[in-house]
Amino acid sequence: MQRLISASFLSLALLAGCQQGPLPPAQPASGPGGADYRFGSVHISSVGFGPSNVRVFIPGNPAPSQPLPIVVFLHGYQAIETVNYQEWLEHLTRRGAVVLFPAWQHRFSLPQNFTPNAAIGVENGMEYLRNHGVPIDTDRVAFIGHSGGGVLAVNLSAWSVRGKLSIRPRAMLLAAPGRCVKCDQYRSPGIPVEAADSIPSDVALVVMNFGDDDIVGQWLGHVLFVDAVQVPRDRRSYLLVRTDNAGWPPLDADHRAPEAMPGPFAGDYVTDGLDYFGTWKIADALMLCAFDGVACDVALGEGTAQKDMGQWSDGTPVRPMLNDWER
Q1: Has residue 74 been placed in a domain?
Q2: How far apart are CA 301 and CA 237, in angstroms?
Q3: How far apart (Å, rounded) are the C-alpha atoms in residues 318 and 105?
Q4: 242: helix, strand or coil
Q5: In 250-311, which ranges are continuous DSSP H helix?
Q6: In the structure, how many helices (H) and strands (E) does the chain have?
Q7: What tens digit of pLDDT does each residue of 72-101 get?
Q8: 5 falls within a domain
Q9: Is residue 7 part of a domain?
Q10: Labelling 27: which of 35, 40, 113, 212 has CA 20 to 30 A away?
Q11: Which structural domain range is residue 115 located in?
Q12: What domain count does the chain have?
């Protein structure tokens, strides 16, 4: 058995050594998506049970002394474990946010209950923060949703307008939003979605799709962007992330690209340049823009600052993201 394991690792090492081409971009030292962290540790608590459970991420080292923004992070369908997004969740927290990660489902949950479940999880998290004296700023709230979580971000934002949720987003990133798996996003049964014009009009909104997404495709994301007419055009943006095979390992813009598991064997869930210069950069910049009025050229500018995806190790630019008018 030991010989088989050793042989497998040797084969992987030889395969990696045979690959040709430059290395993908590393995480930048500073700026949106960068590694200039304010906090050195992350404390995680689990609150509630089943589909109303929420994991609460609080920064530490040093202990926060000023009110922190709140990120509601809504995972993709069945990606209920925080490990699927671990490096992104820790990135957001160490940069200086409290992150709420509601479970919103378990194996017996029905799609019509996903949004109520998520809302209960968010409120459980808010109660935990209040009861434990964590300094938070409820005027600085961001919703980040991936896949089915992108749909729930839309729904919860609509609930917040109607007073059915105690916090309201000022920034939203919808990454690869989808109602169902490998289906007709318009006609097939799936997660119910509120009309895009129910999103708060004062939000900073980015919809991000992925060019090789064969799970939900790009249709729903583009419709949500186009139909959110109440959000001024200079406060909403559409981005298409593209695969780049110019080096090794390749940068695969598929449905799982927003997931960010630790370790070299994370497969489709690996943390790479599509995170640092894509989802992480845009989410960080959206919050800076919405909360502080800075980095808006990165979040929403639809120029080089927004679409740049870094460089391969030989200096070749990674294929930039495309805006709606470039699709």
Answers
A1: yes
A2: 8
A3: 37
A4: coil
A5: 273-274, 280-292, 296-299, 304-307
A6: 9, 9
A7: 999 999 999 999 999 999 999 999 999 999
A8: no
A9: no
A10: 212
A11: 21-326
A12: 1
